[in-house]
Amino acid sequence: MARKDNAADAANPGRLKQIALTYKMTRRADSKIGLVLGAVGIGTLGVFLAIGFLIGHPVYLGILGFLLAFLAMAIVFGRRAERAAFGQMEGQPGAAAAVLDNMKRGWTTTPAVAMNRQQDVVHRAVGKAGIVLVAEGNPNRVKSLLAAEKKRMARIVSDVPVHDILVGTGEGQVELKKLRTTMLKLPRVLTGPQVTATNDRLRALGDIMSNLPMPKGPMPKGMRMPRGGPKMR
Questions:
Q1: Distances (CA, A) of 54 to 45, 64, 83
Q2: Statement: residue 232 has pLDDT above 80
Q3: For residue 44, which of 2, 69, 88, 127 is within the disulfide window of CB 3.0 to 4.6 Å?
């Protein structure tokens, strides 16, 4: 029991420090985060206190309001922190791969299944919606990458629906912060066993990440494909 208590005590400062760092990062991109959280907390508590006085149970409703106010603040903070993080990642090569890597269960992602020397890149995600190719880079250049990847996959998964998404802020593109929501809205047409079978067949194609010593997440700006690297299909 003593060891468990010590472990819990050691973990709590780490969690608090992480929350503090997240708050500082969010405040740099969202200067009103403190005011928003305060308004949400006070507003929620105030509503429950008012209801408590009206029905004659201010203490009970006050305690419930305090707990719900804390929960509401946590939810709002999480969403605004996520939005701030996406804002900082926007435009960085490999940012979409970081978002895909944090997708909920049910999706299998493979980063950088296609790439060129200009850092235009295509990532692949497989789920019950089928295959989703997520491209980031120059809209004109990624079209050829998407076409080549679709042609490559068609040899073994021609019976699976394929969706393509171009991440960006231009017309016909999906903003990074809306990428996960857009994918979750896609209609589910495959069963669990079909998703597994599709992943098994796609593994035979491989991906360039298995042959290149590249870091996970957003890639450093100025990074170029090595001249001696594998050729893109």
A1: 14, 15, 38
A2: no
A3: 69
* pTM of the complete model beyond 0.70: no
- Give residue 218's pLDDT band: very low, low, confident or very high (50, 70, 90): low
Burial of 125: CB neighbours in 10 Å, binned 0-12, 13-18, 19+: buried
Q: Cα 81 to the chain's mean position, in Å?
A: 12
* Closest by Cα among 18, 178, 14 to 82: 178
Range list of H helices, the chain: 2-29, 33-55, 58-89, 95-101, 139-154, 179-184, 192-203
Question: DSSP label at 122?
Answer: E
Cα–Cα dist 86/64, whole Å: 33
In the three-class reduction of DSSP (H, G, I as helix; E, B as strand; rest coil), residue 213 is classed as coil
User: Is a pLDDT exceeding 60 seen at residue 215?
Assistant: no
* Whether 176 contacts 99, CB under 8 Å: yes
